[in-house]
């Protein structure tokens, strides 16, 4: 059965509106809408798609929406699902940003955000530890991690340059390793 | 013109940020350095807080927020579309031509180096953010520094608490203890 574009848009609109944070956080909603409710994909397919979304550039949630939309209705489906996923962010954030712009001169708001910044720093440390436990695990990965911090923070390299260097480094190491075996 | 420039800058972020969510953060810090009239480093911290406490993928929320700050309503839309454009194209190409993209050995070689590098890039963003908390307007902000040292272990221990609660507590503490400049 042909999936309606409107159904794709609405399903991803719902996922975008009810997911806090990207990445893992979207999996339960994805399961409910895409697997249980509409039967557009099996659980294995969704996990595969999500894995591809992780190793391609851009936002994982968006990549996943694009891929499922494409599989159901081609390019139009990909675009419609992606727009559905980002619509809630556009509406909510624009409303909040315009609200905040109106109160930004208030001393109370400035103090609140000074406190919020401290909480955000702690939350980012938490995320970094979670990520590092999975990916900074042996000597080469520790060296790559340190090189990335030193190049950007101390030597002023742009993140784009560092990402490009890392890709080259990974390809060369992979090529050398395969040559040996 | 500003909209075209916004689209291009966020297109680059969408193309080079791999790993989702906070992975766009180091790129936004670079953007604050090259385009300070669009967004400042201090606003990025506020943006992370708002993006974590509203629905939707964090990367998309941050793009909308930054775009809104740079050029209003339409700016938010253009920045978001710019950020998702590269991944939509790439995902469609992968869906069409590369069946087992995530199992390709060159892709896994690149990711072997990319994963720890991205953790390093997020650490770079954290260090930038933290220096803003510790040094407010070039002066050591002792109260904020002590608050961070006290809060960090608590946030790290209670990992299951929703980020929204920490952000709300941060706002309350910021007002109660005058953690601002």
Describe the structure in your own words.
With 181 residues, chain A is an all-alpha fold. Helices cover 82% and strands 0% of the residues of chain A. Chain A folds into 2 domains: 5-102, no CATH class; 106-180, no CATH class. Chain A has 7 helices and no strands. The N and C termini of chain A lie far apart (48 Å). The model of chain A has no long low-confidence stretch (mean pLDDT 88). Chain B has helices spanning 2-16, 25-34, 41-52, 58-97, 105-134, 142-157, 163-176; strands at 135-136, 139-140. Chain B starts with a helix and ends in a 5-residue tail after the last helix. The chains are: A mainly alpha (181), B mainly alpha (181). The interface between A and B is large, with 96 and 107 residues.
Attribute tags:
heterodimer, A: mainly alpha, 2 domains, 82% helix, flat, B: 181 residues, mainly alpha, two-stranded antiparallel ribbon, 7 helices, globular
Class per helix and strand makeup of chain A: mainly alpha
- E-strand count of chain B: 2
Number of strands of chain A: 0
What average pLDDT do the residues of chain A reach? 88
Biggest β-sheet: strands ordered side by side in the sheet of chain B? 1-2
The major pleated sheet of chain A works out as: none
Question: What is the ordering of alpha helices and beta strands of chain B?
Answer: HHHHHEEHH
Return the string of H and E elements of chain A: HHHHHHH
How would you summarize what this structure contains?
Chain A is mostly helical. Chain A has helices at 5-18, 27-37, 43-54, 60-103, 107-135, 139-154, 159-180. Chain A folds into two domains: 5-102, no CATH class; 106-180, no CATH class.
Which helices and strands appear, and what pairs or packs with what?
The complex is a heterodimer of chains A (181) and B (181).
Chain A: H1 5-18, H2 27-37, H3 43-54, H4 60-103, H5 107-135, H6 139-154, H7 159-180
Helix pairs in contact in A: 1-2, 1-4, 3-4
Chain B: H1 2-16, H2 25-34, H3 41-52, H4 58-97, H5 105-134, E1 135-136, E2 139-140, H6 142-157, H7 163-176
Antiparallel strand pairs in B: 1-2
Helix pairs in contact in B: 1-4, 3-4
């Amino acid at each position: 059965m042909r999936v309606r574009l409107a159904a794709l848009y609405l399903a991803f609109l719902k996922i975008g509106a009810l997911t806090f944070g990207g990445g893992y956080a979207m999996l339960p909603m994805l399961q409910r809408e895409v697997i249980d409710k509409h039967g557009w994909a099996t659980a294995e397919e969704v996990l595969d798609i999500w894995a591809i979304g992780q190793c391609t550039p851009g936002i994982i949630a968006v990549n996943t929406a694009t891929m499922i939309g494409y599989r159901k209705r081609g390019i139009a489906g990909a675009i419609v699902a992606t727009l559905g996923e980002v619509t809630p962010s556009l509406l909510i954030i624009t409303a909040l940003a315009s609200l905040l712009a109106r109160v930004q001169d208030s001393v109370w708001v400035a103090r609140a955000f000074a406190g919020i910044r401290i909480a955000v720093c702690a939350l980012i440390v938490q995320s970094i530890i979670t990520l590092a436990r999975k990916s900074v695990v042996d000597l080469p990965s520790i060296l790559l991690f340190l090189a990335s911090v030193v190049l950007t923070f101390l030597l002023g390299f742009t993140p784009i340059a560092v990402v490009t260097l890392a890709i080259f480094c990974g390809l060369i190491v992979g090529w050398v390793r395969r040559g040996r075996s | 013109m500003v909209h075209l420039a916004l689209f291009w800058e966020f297109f680059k972020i969408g193309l080079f940020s791999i790993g989702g969510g906070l992975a766009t953060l180091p790129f936004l810090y670079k953007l604050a350095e090259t385009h300070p009239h669009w967004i400042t480093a201090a606003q990025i911290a506020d943006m992370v807080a708002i993006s974590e406490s509203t629905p939707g993928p964090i990367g998309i929320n941050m793009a909308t927020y930054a775009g809104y700050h740079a050029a209003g309503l339409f700016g938010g839309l253009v920045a978001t579309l710019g950020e998702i454009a590269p991944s939509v194209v790439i995902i469609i190409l992968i869906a069409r031509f590369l069946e087992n993209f995530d199992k390709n050995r060159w892709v896994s070689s690149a990711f072997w180096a990319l994963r720890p590098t991205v953790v390093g890039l997020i650490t770079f963003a954290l260090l930038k953010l933290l220096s803003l908390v510790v040094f407010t307007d070039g002066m050591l902000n002792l109260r904020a520094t002590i608050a961070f040292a006290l809060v960090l272990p608590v946030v790290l221990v209670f990992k299951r608490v929703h980020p929204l609660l920490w952000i709300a507590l941060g706002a309350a503490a910021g007002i109660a203890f005058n953690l601002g400049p």
